[in-house]
Every structure is written in structure tokens, then in C-alpha cells.
Amino acid sequence: MCMERTPWEKAVEFHGHSCPGLAIGCKVAEIALKHLREMRSRDEELVAIVENDSCSVDAVQVLTGCTLGKGNLIYRDLGKQVYTFGSRSGNRALRISVNGDARRPDPEMQELRQKVFSGSASQEERAKFQLAQGRRIEQILQMDESQFCTIKEIDFKFPPKAKIFPSIKCATCGEMVMEPRLRVKNGEFVCLDCFDDYSRGW
Q1: Segment 165-180, tens digit of pLDDT
Q2: Which CATH code fits 164-202?
Q3: Which of 62, 137, 160, 178 is deepest in the core (most CB within 10 A)?
Q4: 3-state class (DSSP) for residue 26
Q5: Can you tell me the distance from the alpha carbon of 31 to that of 6, in angstroms, rounded to the nearest whole number?
Q6: pLDDT given for residue 2 in this prediction
Q7: In angstroms, rounded to a whole number, what is the distance separating the alpha carbons of residues 73 and 4?
Q8: In sequence order, what E strands does the chain have?
Q9: What is the torsion angle, in degrees rounded to the nearest 10, for the CA atoms of residue 71, residue 16, residue 109 and residue 111?
Q10: Percentage of residues of the chain with pLDDT beyond 90
Q11: Residue-level pLDDT at 100
């Protein structure tokens, strides 16, 4: 008999491993869906704005259905554990700011974490770290909302729904590029990389 996976299990499968950052994203997404009285977005019913690119964002995508591909996940590179969710049908939006208690790691685990991620930890130390991670994840997932975050209902201007644009070949590199991203250089349509003479070094 096949058991339905929990939202947490789905997030872990998508992300590739379990970690406290993913737990923060799960908690944020569950709070948003509950307060907005929404289900997972099949299309663009929900909009999410995330202000970091941490593990948490993967959980937000899985649980809310807001994704880059659908155009209803917007990334702002501000380095903040802050998330805004808007419901088009309810015409409501929330700003969720994760409190320090949820993000503060166990100081005793900091040194051990460095050893694990540098590859210098013993098998016993790795096991100890995994147990501590599991406890931290459970603590985050069970944390009371008032301790976990600050929630504010806000005025929100919904972005336009995603559009599909034709692609045109860049006159310089020959790669296809979405029409609105083209620039004119020496009288020809070129992509942004070629317009800026950008050299791919990564």
C-alpha cells in the first residue's frame, strides 16, 4: 500500500536532503497557506516573493506551487529571511519575517558543523551532527508561530501574469533569446551577454 507523502517528505525529496533551512521554508509556506486560506497554486493563483536564495526557497516552491518556471516566484537578493505571499483570488497578501530564534543555530554545533562540511569529522562526530540537525529541524517545525515569525497583512500590487514571448537569434553568438531581452548593437539584435561583451567565466 502506497502512503501519501507528507509536505515535509516532498520538500526533502525535491531538495535532496533534510536541513534546518528547508524546515524554515516548510514552516513559512504552511503559515502562508493557512493565513491566506489557500491551497497549493496550480497556476498563478499565488505569488511569492523571497528575499534570499537559501534552502528554504525549495520548500516554498514545493508547498505553495510558486515557482520560477510559472513566473509566480520572485527572487529579491536582499539576504533576509523574509517572504511575501499574495493570493490573487482573495486579494490579500502577507509579509512573513522569520525571527532570530528560528534561525539561530546551536553554538555548540558550530564547530562540529565546520568539521562535517570540511570533511574532517569522524564517523562519530558526523552521527552526532545528524542527530543535532534532526532535533533542530523538529524544533523549527513544531515552533509556535509567534516565536517563529512576525506576520503582517500588507497592501500588495500583484505583478502581471507571466507572458510568453517569441525567441530571436542573437546576431553575435547565435543563441536564441527572449525578445524583450534583446538589445541593439551595431544595428543588430544581440543578447545581453553579447551587448555587454560578457565573458562566461563560470
Answers
A1: 999 999 999 999 999 9
A2: 3.30.60.20
A3: 62
A4: helix
A5: 16
A6: 62
A7: 26
A8: 46-50, 73-75, 82-87, 92-98, 149-153, 167-169, 176-178, 183-185, 188-190
A9: -90
A10: 74
A11: 84
Helical ranges in 7-99 per DSSP H = 7-15, 20-36, 56-64
Q: Rounded CA gap, 63 and 137, in Å?
A: 17
Amino acid identity, residue 22?
L
Looking at per-residue confidence, does 62 or 198 come out higher?
Answer: 62
Of 101, 100, 88, nearest in space to 48 by CA: 88
* CATH dotted code for 7-153: 3.30.1330.130
- The pLDDT tens digits for 109-168 are 787 888 888 888 889 988 888 898 899 999 999 999 999 999 999 999 998 888 889 999
SS3 assignment, position 93: strand
> Under DSSP, is residue 130 helix (H, G, I), strand (E, B) or coil?
helix
- Entry pTM: 0.84
CA–CA distance, 156 with 143 (Å, rounded to integer): 28
Instruction: Report the candidate in 72, 74, 23 with the shortest Cα–Cα distance to residue 52.
Output: 74
User: In the chain, where are the structural domains located?
Assistant: 7-153, 164-202
Contact status, residue 176 vs residue 169, Cβ threshold 8 Å: yes
CB 94 within 8 A of CB 154: yes
d(CA 86, CA 60): 13
